[in-house]
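Hey, quick one: can you model this chain's 3D structure?
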Amino acid sequence: LQTDIRVLTQAYALARTAEWTSVVKMLVAAERVSVASFHLGRSLGLGLASLLQQVKPRTRFADGTDGAYADVLLDSGADSCVILIDFRRYARHFRLLAEEVAARGIPLIIITDTQCYWARQLTDNVLMLPLDSDRAWHNFGAVTSLFSLLISEVTRVQGDMFERIGDVNVL
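Sure thing. Here's the predicted structure for all 171 residues.
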C-alpha cells in the first residue's frame, strides 16, 4: 500500500513540472494525436486514446498491425503529436518507433517508468513514474490517475469541451 501511495503521489507531483506544462501545450496545439503502447502498457494506450478522443478530435490508437506504423510515421507532421507508452518490459518496437518519430521531427511524448534511461535522449516531453522492482506485476493505478489528470488539464487549457462531450454522448 505504501508503494502505491508513493507512486500515486509522484503522479500528482508530475502535474506541477515543466515537462507537464509542455506536454499539455503540445496536446492542446496538436491537430492530430496518435497513441501507441506496448506489452503491459497496451491496454493503457487504448484507454488513453479512447478517453482523449472525447475532448481532442483526431486522436487515435495506433496498433501497429501493419508492422511499420505507417499511419503514425507518414500521416503525422509538425502539427501532430505522438504519445508512446510502455512500462517495465520495453518492447523493441517502442524504442524503434520513438527514434523514428524523433528523427522525423514529429512532436513526441513518452510515458514510461524511471528505468527507461533512453527516453529523455529523444524528447524533453517525458512523464516518468517510479517502478517497484520487487513486484512481478506493475500496478497501473497511478498511471490511470496520471491520464485522468492529463485529460482534465488538456480540457481546462483548451477551453469548454462540454458541448463536444455532450455531442459524443448523443452519438
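One thing worth noting: Residues 141-158 form the longest helix (18 residues).
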